[in-house]
Write a structure and sequence with these properties.
about 500 residues; alpha/beta; Leucine Aminopeptidase, subunit E, domain 1; Aminopeptidase; 2 domains; 8-stranded mixed sheet; 6-stranded mixed sheet; 19 strands; elongated; binds ligand BES; binds manganese (II) ion; binds zinc ion
C-alpha cells in the first residue's frame, strides 16, 4: 500500500560503491572527517567529495541534512547523497537524516553506507517513516517499491536493531493509509474488514454490530450513525503479549469515517477534509499493528467506534435526547459534536469489560484545538499527572508535538442541560476543553486517562519531516514508546 521501500542488510563492501546503480548515501561528520566509505567516494570521484566538504554550501548544511553529488564521474550511481552526521549523532538527527534521504530517493534504489554509526538504525527509521506515498487512486503510478541495501560493520546487529523501527514505520503507514482513504472506499464495513485482517498477525479482533451495540445500550454512539446507510460498528482489538491476567492498557479511537455534521450540516468549503475524521481510530489501529509486528510483551486493547455522520430523514435532530451506555442522558444540541457521542460509549464499554490500568483516547474532536495549538501540537487532557507525564515524555522522545491543556469544574458546568443530564456542546469558548470535560464524565475515578485531541495533527496540508502532505500517523510512535517503556513485562 503506502509503504514504498524494502530493506535488506549486508556487511560493508566498499567495492559496491563504484558499481551501485540508483543512489549511494554516505555520511561525513560535522568536522569534515571522512570514514572509509567517504574516502572511497572521494577517491572514485577524484576529490569531488573533498571539494564539496570544503565548500561554503557544505558549511551551511545542518547536521541531519544532506548535499548531493549528481551523476558523479567514477561511479555508476546517479547521485551520491552526502549526509552531515557525526558517528554518535543523537536519535532525532539520525532520523531526520534518514527522512532527508527518503525524500531525495523516492522509489529508486539506495545503497546506504552506515559504517559504524552508533544510531544507524535510527537513520533507517527515518528513511522508512518518510518513504510513504498514498497512490492507491493515482492510475498513472506503478505499484513499484524502491529498495534500500543497508551496509554496516555488523549487519546482523543492524538488522536486529532495525526490526522495531521498521515495525513502527509499518504501523504508521497503516494509520496514514486509513486516514488518507476517502469515505466511499473506507466505509465502516471496509474499515472493520481491514482491522479483522490483522488477525493474521496474532491480534484478536471482534466486530460488534448494531444489534449487539443496541443490546449493550450504546444509544449515544448509535444515534450518530442513524442517518447513514453504513452500519455503525465497534471493533475490539486485543494484543495480549504480557503476563496472563494482567489488566491491559486501553486505547480508544474516534472512527467517524465521514463527518458531514449531520443535520447541523457543515459548510461546503473544506468539508472534504472530514474524510480524516476517523484519524483517532486510525492511530489505534496503527499502534495495535506495530505492537503485533514487534511482538510487544504488553497487554493492550484497542477499541474503535466506527460510524458515519450523515443527514437524512432518519438522522438524529438537534434537541434529541439520547441515553449513553453509562446511563447518563445527553441532549444533542449540535449533531456536529458527534465524536464525543461515539467515544463516551466506547470508553464506558472498555472500562466495564477490561478494567484497564489506563485509558488513552484519540480523536479529531474539535476545530477549536486547531485555533489553540495549530498543527504543531495535539491537545492533551488528563485526570492523572503521572499517567499524563508518561505520555508527554514518550511524545517528546519521538518528536511528536503534544501540549497539556486544563480541565476544571467551571468548564464542566458549561455542559449543564435544562432537560437532560448534560448537553453535547458547551458553547464556543474553550471548545476543546468542554469537549474533553464531556468525555471525562465517562471516565471512572479509578481509571488514569489521557484524552488526545488530534484534529490539528492527524492530517496536514504541508509536508512534515517524516510524512508527505496528508495523514501523518501522529501518535503511533509516542504510544508505542509509552507501551514499551511502561507496560512490557
Ligand atoms: N470532526 C470535527 C472536528 C474537526 C474539525 C476535526 C476540523 C478536524 C478538523 C468535529 O466532529 C466537529 O465537528 N466539532 C465541532 C464541535 C462543535 C459543534 C461544538 C467543531 O469543532 O466545530
Ligand atoms: Mn462534527
Ligand atoms: Zn467529527
Amino acid at each position: 500500500m503506502g509503504t514504498i521501500l524494502q530493506f535488506s542488510f549486508a556487511e560493508t563492501d566498499l567495492d559496491r560503491i563504484a558499481e551501485a546503480t540508483g543512489r549511494v548515501a554516505i555520511t561525513v561528520d560535522a568536522a569534515g572527517r571522512m570514514n572509509p566509505a567517504a574516502r572511497r567516494v572521494n577517491r572514485l570521484t577524484k576529490g569531488a567529495l573533498k571539494r564539496m566538504v570544503e565548500s561554503k554550501a557544505w558549511s551551511k548544511v545542518k547536521p541531519g541534512q544532506l548535499c548531493s553529488l549528481a551523476y558523479p564521474a567514477g561511479l555508476a550511481a546517479e547521485a551520491v547523497d552526502v549526509v552531515k552526521l557525526d558517528r554518535t549523532a543523537p536519535v532525532i538527527e539520525a532520523r531526520k537524516a534518514g527522512a532527508a534521504l527518503a525524500k531525495a530517493l523516492g522509489k529508486a534504489e539506495l545503497l546506504l553506507m552506515l559504517g559504524n554509526l552508533v544510531r544507524g538504525h535510527e537513520v533507517a527509521a527515518g528513511l522508512a517513516l518518510r518513504a510513504y506515498g498514498f497512490e492507491t487512486h493515482k492510475t498513472a503510478e506503478a505499484e513499484a517499491t524502491g529498495a534500500v541495501q543497508v551496509m554496516s560493520a555488523k549487519p546482523d546487529e543492524m538488522k536486529a536493531a532495525c526490526a522495531a523501527p521498521l515495525a513502527v514505520a509499518e504501523g504508521v503507514h497503516f494509520t496514514r493509509d486509513l486516514t488518507n482513504e476517502p469515505a466511499n472506499h473506507l466505509t465502516t464495513t471496509s474499515f472493520a474488514e481491514r482491522l479483522v485482517e490483522m488477525q493474521k498477525l496474532g491480534l484478536k479482533v471482534e466486530v460488534l454490530d448494531e444489534d449487539e451495540l443496541q443490546k449493550l445500550g450504546m444509544a449515544s454512539l448509535l444515534s450518530v450513525g442513524h442517518g447513514s446507510d453504513s452500519p455503525s460498528k465497534v471493533v475490539v482489538m486485543q494484543w495480549l503479549g504480557g503476563k496472563k491476567g494482567d489488566a491491559p492498557l486501553a486505547l480508544i479511537g474516534k472512527g467517524v469515517v465521514f463527518d458531514t455534521g449531520g443535520i447541523s450540516l457543515k459548510p461546503a468549503a473544506g468539508m472534504e477534509d472530514m474524510t480524516m475524521d476517523m484519524g483517532g481510530a486510525g492511530v489505534v489501529a496503527g499502534v495495535m499493528k506495530t505492537l503485533a509486528l514487534r511482538g510487544s510483551k504488553a497487554n493492550v486493547v484497542g477499541l474503535v467506534g466506527l460510524v458515519e455522520n450523515m443527514p437524512s430523514a432518519r438522522a438524529t435532530r438537534p434537541g434529541d435526547v439520547v441515553a449513553s451506555m453509562k446511563g447518563d442522558t445527553i441532549e444533542v444540541i449540535n449533531t456536529d459534536a458527534e465524536g464525543r457521542l461515539v467515544l463516551c460509549d466506547v470508553m464506558w464499554y472498555a472500562q466495564e469489560r477490561f478494567q484497564p490500568v489506563g485509558m488513552v483516547d484519540l480523536a479529531t474532536l474539535t476545530g477549536a484545538i486547531i485555533i489553540g495549538l495549530g498543527h504543531e501540537n495535539a491537545g492533551v487532557f488528563s485526570n492523572d499527572d503521572a499517567f499524563c507525564k508518561d505520555f508527554l515524555k514518550a511524545a517528546e522522545a519521538e518528536g511528536e508535538g503534544a501540549w497539556r491543556m486544563p480541565l476544571g469544574q467551571a468548564y464542566d458546568d458549561m455542559l449543564k442541560s435544562r432537560i437532560a443530564d448534560m448537553k453535547n456542546v458547551g458553547g464556543r469558548p474553550a471548545g476543546s476543553v468542554t469537549a474533553a470535560q464531556f468525555l471525562k464524565r465517562f471516565v471512572k475515578d479509578e481509571t488514569p486517562w489521557v484524552h488526545l485531541d488530534i484534529a490539528g495533527v492527524a492530517s496536514v496540508k504541508a509536508e512534515t519531516t517524516y510524512a508527505p502532505k496528508g495523514a501523518t500517523g501522529w501518535g503511533v510512535m509516542a504510544l508505542n514508546r509509552m507501551v514499551a517503556d511502561h507496560y512490557e513485562s
